[in-house]
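Q: Here's a chain of 109 amino acids. Please give me its 3D structure as C-alpha cells.
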Amino acid sequence: MEAATAGKMNRSIAIQARTLSAPNQLGEQIPSFTTFATVWGEKTELSGSQQLVAQQTTVQKITRFRIYWRPDVNTTCRLVVDGETYDVTYIAELGRRKGLLLTAKALAS
C-alpha cells in the first residue's frame, strides 16, 4: 500500500482523544472527547448497510482515512469529518512511519 500523497489529502479531519470524567454518584465514569489535532487526509468509503430492526432503521458505514503518520492516534480515538463522527476500529502503518490507514465506523446520528 502506498503512503499518503498530498494531492488526495483534501479532507479536514479532527482527531479526538477519549477522556473519562470523575466517577458520578453511581460510580460511573462518563466518556468525553477532546480534539487534539486537525489534519488533512484522504477519505474512502468502504461499505455501508441499512437494516430495519425493531421498527427502527440502523445504518452502518465503514470508511477508510489515509493521513500522514502520527504517534498519538490509536483505536480509542474518534474522527470528525464533514460533521460526521467515526470511531477508529483499526490502524495500519504505511511504509516506515510515512502514513496511517485508519479504518473507522460512522456513529449513528
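Q: Can you summarize the key feature?
A: The chain is about 0% helix and 65% strand.
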